Amino acid sequence: MQALSPERYRVQFTIGQETHDAVKRLQALMRRELPGGDIAAIFEQGVQLLLEKVEKAKLGGTRRPTREKTGLPGSSRNVRVDDPIGPTYENRIRFETDRPAPRRPRHIPSAVKRAVWWRDRAQCAFVSPTGVRCTERSYLELHHIHPYALDGPTTVGNLSLRCRRHNAYEAEKVFARGAEQSRRR
């Protein structure tokens, strides 16, 4: 992509025969909306549709998000950021005698995903020991600050965005430490 002027870009790429045929079919089908068959307009609409589809799949995006449980300012009921973090497995007395914990769904509600994405500004929220925040904006994953495997809840207060490397790094820190402690026992 090459900038031509403010808010205008030139995009040039090569497409295959199937894509060429699909564009021609779109031009024919959209003659009423686009009498000239402007490929740039078709491309813009296609990108918007694909973006909505991917956001819905990855972030629980929707055209009309519910205001309930979003955690966003002005919502009718905010998700609590300071939800208590449940007991860890290390705090249980005896595995065999403890009541089995109720099964918690691993599913993260779409409203929580949107609130975390908005709060972290679509960027990795990892901050180095020197105070520098990671600038990565792709390959983002939802990271449990208190791990789900150790009874961490799936709430806005316990989730943050991490790039793949920082998510793996923090998981290794937590679970390698736990493995080391169990070896010592």
How would you summarize what this structure contains?
The protein is α+β, with helices and mostly antiparallel strands and 185 residues long. The protein has 4 helices and 4 strands, in the order E-E-H-H-H-E-E-H. It has a two-stranded antiparallel sheet with strand order 1-2. It has a two-stranded antiparallel ribbon with strand order 3-4.
Identify the quaternary structure here: single chain
Structural class: alpha+beta
Q: In which range does the helix fraction lie?
A: 25-40%
* Overall radius of gyration: 23 Å
DSSP summary: helix tally: 4
Main β-sheet, in a few words?
2 strands, antiparallel
Residue-averaged pLDDT, rounded?
79
Write the layout of secondary structure elements.
Layout: E1 2-5, E2 8-10, H1 17-29, H2 39-59, H3 110-119, E3 140-144, E4 159-163, H4 164-184
Antiparallel strand pairs: 1-2, 3-4
